[in-house]
Design a protein that fits this description.
Elements lengths: L8 E6 L2 E9 L5 E3 L4 H5 L19 E4 L4 E4 L2 E2 H7 L2 H10 L5 H12 L9 H5 L7 H15 L9 H26 L13 H10 L10 H13 L7 H11 L4 H13 L6 H13 L5 H9 L20 H16 L5 H13 L3 H5 L6 H11 L7 H22 L27
Antiparallel strand pairs: 1-2, 2-3, 4-5, 5-6
Bound molecules: s-citryldethia Coenzyme A.
The site of s-citryldethia Coenzyme A (SDX) has 21 residues, from helix 17.
């Protein structure tokens, strides 16, 4: 949508050549330089490692304003969704583009509920793996493996057939995550219960055992629902771009999301939530004071990062971190838990917000800085934190994958490069080297 005042083209001068490039305008005033003709017209390409200045697509799903600390799903502020919505309602919103009616949401919840079970033979997959294998590796493999059961899932399926894959993914991921957890403890797998809500069922799958009744704590279930909402989408982050890139080859949804799980596992991305807790524990256990740690985080030679701080897009507070910091206090108070790690986290944040190194680089707490403290309070083990990040991000990955396949601009992802290696040279036989 452009107004009369907004420019429609840009001029690029390279040596004695000048070319016109179109400008693309977003609904929030963002402007994109359309360089699709750049190589053909000027025989040059753009160079942007990490794509920090490059838009891969036009999207209607999530809007971020990093300078103002704004996050909206389909136009709805994250603060309002966190306060009023539910994870499955947000999942519908992200995937379908509109908030569901009460009736449609009830149908969606029912569809999810009746697809939470895994094929019985899949249990052998989990028990065949090392007990202490990281659950992110197990979940990535298991999600990819779902396509062995649903072979007919194709990228070009009609919407209703794709919908079956969407439902199965959202419904079965919590069961997969719980099976990975139970296997690590050598405990029996629990079947999902159709009388429980989505997050209550997750707690049942994780903590129930076949020998006694288990009633999920509603406070914990609600806090888990909030965590899933806050992680549900975040425009073209590393793992979402991975899901789009794999999907661009026309790989199916399960294969694309499996790749997204692997990308999210990295400690610079979703794996940071596990690293934050490990960092806080190391400080708490007397390795060093918060101030000493901060000095190390500022010293490049120490190879230390303040995990949970900094963001490619947010150069202001991550709105999710603000909500999570408040939720930490609420959940810990309601559960009657005093976690010294929360005090250390707040101390680190206080130091960072008044230290030039962090201020100059606009480094603020991100979504991973406080989430681990809540996961801990909910009884979730540290190496499952990123699995829960994946669980929350599922609807976002699904929505972005579907949007890609509806986009008339969409093509297989195949970036170019600037070659800086050896120029042509002749082969030298071994005896002459
Ligand atoms: C997520 O993209 C998304 O939307 C991701 C996410 C989502 O919802 O999908 O929001 C989830 O991944 C959050 C980020 C979680 N990762 C961490 O908390 C790891 C710690 N943070 C970083 O490593 C870093 O801030 C990144 C990876 C998040 C961002 O990296 P960038 O944009 O490439 O920034 P950079 O590494 O170039 O840093 C710029 C400067 C550097 O210093 P100088 O070279 O300018 O001197 O800031 C410094 C960095 O050394 N810096 C930090 C720091 N983060 C950046 N210094 C100390 N501690 C940190 N955490």
């Amino acid at each position: 949508m452009t107004t009369e005042t907004q420019p429609k083209t840009a001029k690029l001068t390279i040596g004695d050549r000048e070319i016109d490039l179109d400008l693309i305008h977003g609904t929030e005033g963002e402007i994109g330089l359309d360089i699709r003709k750049l190589r053909a017209q000027a025989n040059v390409i753009a160079y942007d490692p990490g794509f920090a200045n490059t838009g891969s697509c036009r999207s209607e799903i999530t809007f971020l304003d990093g300078e103002k600390g704004i996050l909206r799903y389909r136009g709805y502020p994250i603060e309002q969704l966190a306060e009023h919505s539910s994870f499955l309602e947000v999942a519908w919103l992200l995937i379908k583009g509109e908030l569901p009616t009460k009736e449609r949401l009830a149908e969606f919840e029912h569809e999810i509920k009746y697809h939470t079970m895994l094929k019985e033979s899949l249990k052998g997959f989990f028990t065949s793996l090392p007990r202490m294998g990281h659950p992110m590796a197990i979940c990535a493999a298991a999600v990819g493996g779902l396509s062995t059961f649903y072979q007919d899932v194709k990228y070009d399926d009609p919407e209703d057939k794709r919908w079956a894959a969407v439902i199965r993914l959202l419904a079965k991921f919590p069961t997969i995550a719980a099976y990975a957890y139970k296997h690590s403890l050598r405990l029996p797998f629990m079947y999902p219960r159709n009388d429980l809500g989505y997050t209550e069922n997750i707690l049942h799958l994780l903590y129930a055992n076949p020998c006694e009744e288990y009633a999920p704590d509603p406070v914990i279930a609600k806090a888990l629902d909030l965590l899933l909402i806050l992680h549900a989408d975040h425009e073209q982050n590393c793992s979402t771009s991975t899901v789009r890139m794999v999907g661009s080859s026309h790989a199916n949804l399960f294969a694309s999301v499996s790749a997204g799980i692997s990308a999210l596992w990295g400690p610079l991305h979703g794996g940071a939530n596990q690293k934050v807790i490990e960092m806080l524990i190391s400080i708490h256990e007397g390795g060093k004071t918060a101030q000493q740690f901060m000095e190390m985080a500022k010293d490049k030679k120490s190879n230390t990062r303040l995990m949970g701080f900094g963001h490619r897009v947010y150069k202001n507070h991550d709105p999710r971190a603000r909500i999570l910091q408040q939720a930490c206090d609420d959940v810990l108070n309601r559960l009657g838990i005093h976690n010294p790690l929360l005090e250390i986290a707040k101390e680190l944040e206080g130091i960072a917000l008044s230290d030039d190194y962090f201020i100059e680089r606009k480094l603020y707490p991100n979504v991973d800085f406080y989430s681990g403290i809540i996961y801990q309070a909910l009884g979730i083990p540290v190496d499952m934190f990123t699995v829960f990040f994946s669980m929350g991000r599922l609807p976002g990955w699904i929505a972005q994958w579907l949007e890609f396949h509806r986009d008339e601009d969409a093509r297989i992802s195949r970036p170019r490069q600037i070659y800086t290696g050896a120029t042509e040279r002749d082969y030298v036989p071994a005896h002459k080297r």
